[in-house]
Amino acid sequence: RADGRALRKLPVHVGLVVTEEEPSYADMASLVVWCMAVGISYVSVYDHNGIFKRNNSRLMDEILKQQQELLGLDCSKYAVEFANHDKTGQVLNCQSTLKVLSPEDGKADIVKAAQNFCQLVAQQQRTHSDLDVNMLDNLLSSTNGFPDPDLVLKFGPVDSTLGFLPWHIRLTEIISLPSHLNISYEDFFSALHHYAACEQRWGK
């Protein structure tokens, strides 16, 4: 937590995007627990094959195990809420909230939101002029309750976020790292340090 306080700015929402073919549950769990420990409130985990989302329970079990191992008796101070639908009952003093996402939460979610808006217009509950950024944000289900990511840590050799929340990352800082496999806390904290030092011009 002291490391987080030492940074000039700390992201509120971090996306962890794996572009490698073989995702590691243990290494991803370490990254999530480190995010929690430095004080990041929202964490999204994504891989383009949807492996983490399909095996959500396995990832959550690994996170809880590493929480205990890395944080020990202080574990209760660093509680995590699992925001995915099949784990909504598992809330531990929510201080960090985690979502596990797959490509269906990206472009497909935008298509579904557009369809829902068209239905509202057809039912005369909305007019076409009501559609703006806030309206679309409210219609998107994949990030309901989550702020847009401030920072995406992209792991792997592919120079693309491979469909990770295309609507939400228009102002997001993206930092590429070679791999999430065997990643060290020093590599993770160095990326946070890089984010804290960067000047965001918001398109200006």
From TrEMBL:
GO terms for biological process: angiogenesis; cell differentiation; lipid metabolic process; regulation of intracellular cholesterol transport. It is a multi-pass membrane protein. Gene3D superfamilies: Decaprenyl diphosphate synthase-like. Keywords: Angiogenesis, Developmental protein, Differentiation, Endoplasmic reticulum, Glycoprotein, Lipid metabolism, Magnesium, Membrane, Receptor, Transferase, Transmembrane, Transmembrane helix. The keyword Transport does not apply. Its EC number is 2.5.1.87. InterPro entries: Nus1/NgBR, UPP_synth-like, UPP_synth-like_sf. The keyword Phosphoprotein does not apply. With DHDDS, forms the dehydrodolichyl diphosphate synthase (DDS) complex, an essential component of the dolichol monophosphate (Dol-P) biosynthetic machinery. Both subunits contribute to enzymatic activity, i.e. condensation of multiple copies of isopentenyl pyrophosphate (IPP) to farnesyl pyrophosphate (FPP) to produce dehydrodolichyl diphosphate (Dedol-PP), a precursor of dolichol phosphate which is utilized as a sugar carrier in protein glycosylation in the endoplasmic reticulum (ER). Synthesizes long-chain polyprenols, mostly of C95 and C100 chain length. Belongs to the UPP synthase family. This is Dehydrodolichyl diphosphate synthase complex subunit NUS1. It comes from Sinosuthora webbiana.
